[in-house]
Each structure stands twice: as structure tokens, then as C-alpha cells.
Design a protein that fits this description.
Helix content is 19%, strand content 31%. By secondary structure, it is α+β, with helices and mostly antiparallel strands. It has four domains: 46-162, Thrombin, subunit H, CATH 2.40.10.10; 173-260, Beta Barrel (Thrombin, subunit H); 280-374, Pdz3 Domain, CATH 2.30.42.10; 397-489, Pdz3 Domain. The strands form six sheets. A seven-stranded antiparallel sheet has the order 7-6-1-4-5-9-8. Strands 24, 25, 26, 27, 28, 29 and 30 form a seven-stranded antiparallel sheet that branches. The longest helix is centred in the N-terminal third of the chain and has 16 residues, at 2-17. The chain starts with a helix and ends with a strand.
Length: 493
């Protein structure tokens, strides 16, 4: 009898303390969602591997040009500068195409059972055909190749009559968050079917690798050969296309970069529909206003928006009355925080559409209506440099901690400019000066100082001579690659 009394007391104690588990329904509580089992990724991998392919890019034999050098493979992001320079010294003209037409290799992923393969532009760049190899060893040759170099994305269309092909679904990259688990699949160093895992380390990364970029950063191991392969979430969906690594060694160091699937989907749809991507532009060279000192010089209350450094002649912005030095802070009332945001917003709109730019000009707000036009095919693509002819630069003049010389075709070519432009060449920068601190370097072309055009050395001397030694100086420069930059040289240079 005592035993039953003890048992009964113990039972009452369990109920009172809540240690006796009562079904949630009886307690009026919802049944908790099951926890995803992440002990193994094998089910995801089994689904993914048949849809991930290795890609070998080729030129058909009739189009092979054995003497044509191609871009050196060691100039990719992450290769140490000293290593790259040494290799370029050994092979200054680049490396010739292989005799059988092979150009390179990478990875890809089938995203439609009819045979749509998504990869990187740099994987198939220059190819007239590609050889696709599947996990089971099956090879398919395809010549239907479409790409968009401005986002580094490409599509290879396989023969649908030989399908259906194993495919993965494109997921929604916008729903992914920092800390979410991901897998990277591809052929690093030619090792096909390699799977690595990690998390999303960051989003919205811009490294100025591509014209349009919004990278997902991951610590899943990505190495050369992974390019074009998928970044996959735990639901087995493609949420990114692996594109680049940031590294000092040229190999994996914890920072991999993938193009978001939502961006890839938009490019894929346009390539399949039109064979190319159509974008709008307003025809300006611009930079983000991130420096508080620069913002103050431009009449802004805080670092925000994109400052116009230059205008394309007869482009939409010039025709509308936009001027160098204007800061674009919004489009149709929607704020734009920097040049990348402005560029992406304008590019997403239809050519022919009229937009209203919110502009700050010398501290005053105004609105300018601009008729968008379709981007020229080469817009934003840097032109190659011509070799130097070894001509001697004229005697330089000094000011602002700089040595400058008149721009000439010969002088420009020494630093990589393909044509003569208005301005003065920087030939030397005092390493102890504020100009050096601001980022000015030999080979840059000064085009404006304090918003005044600098046509030659005489104009440079006149403007510099009139400056207040106690005031910061706004300097605009052009680079051989076609870029423009506004910097502030602090007072006391």
C-alpha cells in the first residue's frame, strides 16, 4: 500500500512540475515544426550531381588561329600581383590557343529539362562550341551559346531531342539570409562532381569584377574550375552561380562569390528570348559619393548618391542638361544610395521610358527629365590598351604635389591611352603629398580641378595658382581603362 502511495505522489509531482509530457493538442498548443536533419547532405547531393556538368570550351578547327594569343588565365581575381607579373614577363604576348582548339574549362548546371545550361561568360568566352560532360560520363557537344559579359553569365542550349535532362530548379536568392547553409558543386581543378559546404557569409557584395554585380559571399570552398557551377540551398535549389574567389594565393581562402539566382533568371530569360540582353542607359561616367569630405565639396549634407564625372557626347543625360559635378540622388522619387544602385536601376528600365532624376547641383536640389536609350553593345566595356611606342614625355610642371605634362598621342600611349584627350598627364606623385594619399598616381589624366576644365599645362598652372592653400581641392581624373574618378586633395599639399 505504501508503494502505491509513493507512486501516486511521484505521478502528481510530475504533473505539477510539467515534467510529464502531454501532447500539444491536449495542452492547446500547436505541434512544433520538425527540425531539418542536417547531419548529412546526401539526399541533396544525389539530386544535384546529375544536373551539374563540366564544360570544355573549344573553337572549331576551321576557326582556330594558332598565332592568336588569348587572355592569360593567371590574371583572374585573387592571383598574387607579383606572380601574375612574373608570368606575364615570361609570356608577354599571352598564351596561344591549343592546337586542337581547346580554350578552357569550367562548370555549369542544367536548369531546364529541355537542356538549358547556365554557366559563366568567362567559361565559354571565345568558344564556338562546347563539350558538356555529365556525371555518368555522357558527353554532348553544343554550339548554341549565348552570353552576357556585363554580368558574366552565359547560356548553353542543348539538343532538346536528346533529353529530358536532369535539372535543378532556380530558387529565390532574395529569401536567403546570412548564416543559411549552402553547397557548392562543380569541377575545381578538373575534379568533376566535387561538393563542398558552408554558409552564406554576406550578401550584396560589389568587387568591381563585373559591370553589374550583387554577389552572394560564401565560405563554401570554391576554387578554379568551380566557375559556372551552382550554389545550392538545403532544399536543393540553385540560389547562385559560382563566379569568383577573393584570395592572395590564387586558391580557396574562405571567400567565394556567386551571382544571385534572381539576377541569373532575369539574364537567362532575356538570352533565351532575344539572344542578348537589352538595357537602358543615361550616358554618364559616375562614382559613388562615400567620402564625407567629397560630399561636402559637392554640396551634400551626407555621403550619398552618385556624382557625374563625365557625359557621353549626345547621350541621354547630356541632351537632358545633366552636367559634370551633378550628384544624382534619386530616380522617379526613389532614392539611390550609390553609383551601383543607380546603374542597376536604370538598366532595369525599358529603353524609351522617361525618368525624372533627382539631382543636387552645387548644393541645390533640382529635377531633370531624361529619355532613356538602349545601351550600345560596348557601353561600359573597357577598351584594350595599345603598346607604348617609347616616346619621351615633355618636361613636366609641378603643383599639388604632382608633376604633370601636356597630353599628346605619344604621351598617352606611354600610359595606355588609345587616343588624345583634353587634360594633363600625371607623370610623378610626391609619395609624401596629400595627392598621393588621395589616390592620384602617374598615368592618370587630370581633366578638371574645382569643376574647371584643364585643357593643358598652362590651364593647370593658372587654376592651381589661384587656389587657396588652406582649402581642399576637388580633382577629376581619367584612367587609361576609360574610367573617371573624383578625389579630394586635402589642403596643405
Amino acid at each position: 500500500m505504501k508503494r502505491w502511495m509513493v507512486a501516486g505522489a511521484g505521478l502528481m509531482l510530475l504533473v505539477c512540475t510539467g515534467l510529464w509530457t502531454v501532447p500539444g493538442v491536449l495542452q492547446g498548443q500547436a505541434t512544433p515544426a520538425p527540425v531539418r536533419d542536417l547531419v548529412s547532405y546526401r539526399d541533396i547531393v544525389k539530386k544535384a550531381l546529375p544536373a551539374v556538368v563540366s564544360i570544355e570550351s573549344r573553337q572549331t578547327r576551321t576557326e582556330i588561329k594558332p598565332s592568336r594569343p588569348r587572355r592569360l588565365p593567371f590574371d583572374a581575381p585573387g592571383v598574387p600581383e607579383e606572380f601574375r607579373k612574373r608570368l606575364e614577363e615570361l609570356m608577354p604576348e599571352g598564351i596561344p590557343d591549343a592546337p586542337d582548339g581547346r580554350l578552357g574549362s569550367g562548370s555549369g548546371v542544367v536548369i531546364d529539362a529541355s537542356g538549358v545550361v547556365l554557366t559563366n561568360h568567362h567559361v565559354i568566352d571565345g568558344a564556338t562550341e562546347v563539350v558538356i560532360t555529365f556525371q555518368d560520363g555522357k558527353k554532348v557537344t553544343a554550339k548554341n551559346i549565348m552570353s552576357d559579359p556585363k554580368t558574366d553569365l552565359a547560356i548553353v542550349k542543348l539538343d532538346s531531342s536528346k533529353g529530358p535532362y536532369a535539372a535543378l530548379e532556380l530558387g529565390d536568392s532574395d529569401t536567403m539570409e546570412i548564416g543559411d547553409r549552402v553547397l557548392a558543386v562543380g569541377a575545381p581543378f578538373g575534379l568533376a562532381g566535387t561538393v563542398t559546404h558552408g554558409i552564406i557569409s554576406a550578401k550584396n557584395r560589389n568587387l568591381n569584377v563585373n559591370m553589374y554585380e550583387d554577389f552572394i559571399q560564401t565560405d563554401a570552398a570554391i576554387n578554379p574550375g568551380n566557375s559556372g557551377g551552382p550554389l545550392i540551398n538545403v532544399d536543393g535549389q540553385v540560389i547562385g552561380i559560382n563566379s569568383a574567389i577573393k584570395s592572395r594565393s590564387g586558391g580557396f581562402q574562405g571567400i567565394g562569390l556567386a551571382i544571385p539566382s534572381n539576377q541569373a533568371r532575369h539574364i537567362k530569360d532575356q538570352l533565351l528570348a532575344n539572344g542578348s540582353v537589352k538595357r537602358s542607359y543615361i550616358g554618364v561616367a559616375m562614382q559613388s559619393v562615400q567620402d564625407p569630405v567629397l560630399a561636402q565639396k559637392l554640396g551634400l549634407k551626407s555621403p550619398y548618391g552618385a556624382v557625374v564625372n563625365d557625359l557621353i557626347a549626345s547621350g541621354p543625360a547630356e541632351k537632358a542638361g545633366v552636367q559634370p559635378g551633378d550628384v544624382i540622388v534619386g530616380v522617379n522619387g526613389k532614392p539611390v544610395k550609390d553609383s551601383k544602385a543607380l546603374q542597376a536601376l536604370i538598366a532595369s528600365l525599358q529603353p524609351g521610358k522617361e525618368v525624372e532624376l533627382d539631382v543636387v547641383r552645387e548644393g541645390k536640389n533640382q529635377s531633370i527629365k531624361v529619355q532613356l536609350e538602349e545601351q550600345p553593345k560596348t557601353y561600359g566595356m573597357a577598351a584594350g590598351n595599345e603598346p607604348s611606342e617609347g616616346n619621351i614625355l615633355p618636361t613636366p610642371q609641378r603643383g599639388l604635389g604632382l608633376s604633370v605634362a601636356n597630353m599628346s598621342l605619344e604621351a598617352g600611349r606611354k600610359y595606355g591611352f588609345k587616343s588624345k584627350k583634353n587634360g594633363v598627364m600625371i607623370t610623378e606623385v610626391d609619395p609624401q603629398s596629400h595627392a598621393h594619399e588621395a589616390g592620384l598616381r602617374p598615368g592618370m589624366l587630370i581633366t578638371r580641378i574645382e569643376r574647371q576644365a584643364v585643357a593643358d599645362v598652362a590651364a593647370f598652372e593658372k587654376i592651381v595658382g589661384s587656389l587657396d592653400a588652406k582649402s581642399d581641392v576637388l580633382v577629376q581624373v581619367a584612367t587609361p581603362e576609360g574610367g573617371t574618378l573624383l578625389v579630394v586633395v586635402k589642403a596643405g599639399s
